[in-house]
Amino acid sequence: MLNYVWSGLIIFSLIFALAVDSQELVENRFRNDTPMPVTVAFPEGYAPDARRQPVRIQIGPSQYKEFFGVDAAPAPSYEGTLLQTKSGRQLQFSTEGSLPEPLSTIRSFHESDDNPALRGTLAKVASLSPSTQRVETAVQFEPVHFRKLNAIAEAALNFAETAASLALGLIGILGLMLGLVKIGEEAGLVHALADTVQPLLSPLFPNVPDGHPALANVTLNLLANVFGLGNAATPLGIKAMEDLQDLNPDDETATDDMVMLLALNTSSVQLVPPSLLVAIMGLQINQLIFSITLATFFSTIAGILGALVLSKLPWFRATAPHRLADATDDD
Questions:
Q1: Which residue has the higher pLDDT, 10 or 325?
Q2: pTM, full prediction
Q3: 125 vs 141: CA distance, rounded Å
């Protein structure tokens, strides 16, 4: 079911992006292939032989509004650089100033790690001499096409890279933690832990038999979450869910115990802040420890109550795997 939801969201986002991009192309919002009138001033005078020289770029407010058909007005002037090459002159805006829309969007669409500045090709000027202080001209920006679709494609590639890096990073942790759990099972520690926590967790996991290792893995998963060991909690949670699935008579529907584990895992009390949050905030995290503990305490209560209440509703009770299995056995 979740796969269908994600697929629907992806398809909807693509349709929405295509509609927005098509509308922008029809309206020619970014005035592709049309030079924008500007005035270029040379504070130090024009230097014919200089490859780079500072300039001040001025855009008339009325001209800007008429050119782009917007209400936003540009600043009185912008610092910039004139680049002179064999292929022509390029005007580059400074990255320090803020630009009005849609210039800001044009800049973000074409920016790169090497050059985040807004830049465009300067129209041919009749004559420039060392005595020139300012010149009326126009600048042609690179066209903007399908920016929404490009953004979705770029985000998909970035998250695919993140997912691959995360998966590879978890392999070592997964192997280590599952290996330790296996050693604990062989040594009898897992079963001893299951017997210890049986009175506490039995009301929350009524379908787990006494002494089953699933309770021990659930406990280890919860402890890892409580003490902020997110990377260690992941393989332990997977192992606990696998143990609960072994008790599940249905391969397609989660049991009440599996739902309860998911609720506890996602809303777990945090006595120690997550390591990622500590890395971001440093010592300032000490100011939030009480707030984090209090908030996660109530979130855990809400998760437990939510799972218990939903499991009692008629529709969920009718589709619960254990109840269906019991009904089949009675027949």
A1: 10
A2: 0.58
A3: 17
